[in-house]
């Protein structure tokens, strides 16, 4: 190689983006997924199943790092501040990603700016349930009962400002009813008091509550999907029960630090798409009463997240919901 060729190559290498040089053989070591919730919960279980399937595609292990606290904000901050090299991933859940920025007055990071969306690996409707002592068999009867007893119907949530809280405030707004919010430190104690009859209603992810409906310990009023759930086909949607605008889904997704190189993001997206359609993961979804995931492009998912951010921001502002 003559000096002219050597100099030209050196200049080209100097001008090349560092990310492109560093990521040529990505991934070449284990990855870490930050889960902003405790181990053993529904979100954690789904993350582990998805990352196991994704690990098989990438050829590298993906280690789960549980960082619970502050409604998911702690784990989100850890991930946002991580090195943007593709080796730190985040379980993105609807609450910390698009609801918490509106309900918390002070956050260490801005999820919409400091993290980049990759894709979905879980999405499903919520289900409104009541304790059997409530004399309502369907959504219209539930609304009528709440109107006849304003403020006397107590509903449980997993915490102020979270999905289970905001979803019920949206219902109250759409139906024109008044209910009393009883926040708990997590879904488990909220469900325990609902089963005991100390609170009368709750709206949570369908897989969380459906087993108790099937056992007769809770009564299903409506699901929040656009169509009935294949796992509870006998339960009507809120839309077909008189609230056409009450359609909402909880979701789980993959995010990375915002400055992660685009080629790395696309590698992760391709691996995620393969993982969520693999038999091990679809078997997990079926066992968890969760619908299969149809991959969408990274650009479509980014637009979806922005739409969710704007939608829930309006709900939070209209109901004046605060989490701190």
Automatic annotation (TrEMBL):
This is Tripartite tricarboxylate transporter substrate binding protein. InterPro entries: BUG, Bug_dom1. Residues 1-22 form the signal peptide. Belongs to the UPF0065 (bug) family. The lineage of its organism: Bacteria, Pseudomonadati, Pseudomonadota, Betaproteobacteria, Burkholderiales. It holds the Pfam family TctC. Keywords: Signal. It comes from the Bacteria.
């Amino acid at each position: 190689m003559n000096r002219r060729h050597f100099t030209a190559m050196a200049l080209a290498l100097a001008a090349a983006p560092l990310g492109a040089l560093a990521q040529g053989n990505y991934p070449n070591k284990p990855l870490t997924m930050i889960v902003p919730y405790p181990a053993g919960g529904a979100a954690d279980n789904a993350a582990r199943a998805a990352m196991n399937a994704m690990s098989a595609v990438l050829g590298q292990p993906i280690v789960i790092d549980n960082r619970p606290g502050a409604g998911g904000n702690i784990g989100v901050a850890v991930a946002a501040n991580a090195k943007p090299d593709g080796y730190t991933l985040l379980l993105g859940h609807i609450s910390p990603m698009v609801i918490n920025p509106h309900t918390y007055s002070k956050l260490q990071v801005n999820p919409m700016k400091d993290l980049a969306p990759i894709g979905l690996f879980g999405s499903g409707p919520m289900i409104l349930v009541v304790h059997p002592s409530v004399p309502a068999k369907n959504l219209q009867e539930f609304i009528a009962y709440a109107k006849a007893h304003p403020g006397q119907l107590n509903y449980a949530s997993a915490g102020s400002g979270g999905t289970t809280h905001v979803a019920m405030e949206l219902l109250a707004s759409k139906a024109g009813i008044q209910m009393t919010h009883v926040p708990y430190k997590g879904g488990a104690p909220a469900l325990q008091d609902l089963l005991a009859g100390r609170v009368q209603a709750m709206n949570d992810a369908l897989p969380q509550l459906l087993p108790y409906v099937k056992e007769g310990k809770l009564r299903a009023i409506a699901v929040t999907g656009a169509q009935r759930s294949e796992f509870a086909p006998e339960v009507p949607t809120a839309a077909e029960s008189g609230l056409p605008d009450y359609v909402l889904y909880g979701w789980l997704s993959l995010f990375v630090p915002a400055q992660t190189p685009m080629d790395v993001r696309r590698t992760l997206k391709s691996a995620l798409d393969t993982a969520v359609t693999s038999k091990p993961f679809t078997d997990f979804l079926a066992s968890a009463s969760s619908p299969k995931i149809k991959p969408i492009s990274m650009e479509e998912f980014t637009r979806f997240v922005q739409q969710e951010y704007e939608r829930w921001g309006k709900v939070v502002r209209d109901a004046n919901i605060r989490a701190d």
